[in-house]
Amino acid sequence: MNPKLIKTEKQHDAALKHADKLMSAKPGTRQGDELELWVFLIKAYEEVHYPIAMPNPIAAIRFRMEQQGLRRADLIPYIGSKSKVSEVLNGQRSLSLAMIRKIHEGLSIPLDILIGDKTSGRRAKKAARPNSQPRVRERRIQL
After folding, report:
1. Whole-angstrom distance, CA of residue 89 vs CA of residue 65
2. Of 22, 69, 92, 131, which has the most beta carbons under 10 Å away?
């Protein structure tokens, strides 16, 4: 199968099957290079046709809490008092700039996620051109 730009779902399915056959290829070999090219082509197609939206900042914090086995009390150094932590996690209080900085530094959650969709949505609307695909910010997943 010759590598080429993927334009249809049928081509995408075929590319996935072909890449799957090449998965055991060693890096630096002809097959390893071919696999790398197919992964690039597949990712390019999926970025346009299957975008992954940025998570909600609170959902990201909850996810990190689950990953690290943290309790609400463990967020006090980043957010403030126990009541502030509760208000933030329940959506009753917005994250302040100081909270965002501390959470980013302490929990390693990317700043663009903590800032939230409101800011990134405005930028995407301003950057959009007539008759163009809407830009969707996404998290990239390595294959």
Report:
1. 11
2. 22
- The answer on 77 and 115 residing in a single domain is yes
Q: Residue 104, Cβ neighbours under 10 Å: how many?
A: 17
**Spatial CA neighbour of 133 closest among 54, 50, 10:** 50
DSSP 112: H
Beta bridge partners of 53: 138
pLDDT digits (tens, 9 = 90+) for 18-45: 999 999 999 999 999 999 999 999 999 9
What is the C-alpha separation between 119 and 102, in angstroms, rounded? Answer: 19
Q: Which domain holds residue 28?
A: 9-49
Residue 138: beta bridge partners? 53
DSSP states of 24-49 as a string? TPPTTSHHHHHHHHHHHHHHHHHHHH
The first and second tokens of residue 38, run together, are 């197919």
Residue 40 lies in a domain: yes
CA-derived radius of gyration, the chain: 20
Q: How far apart are CA 53 and CA 120, in angstroms?
A: 11
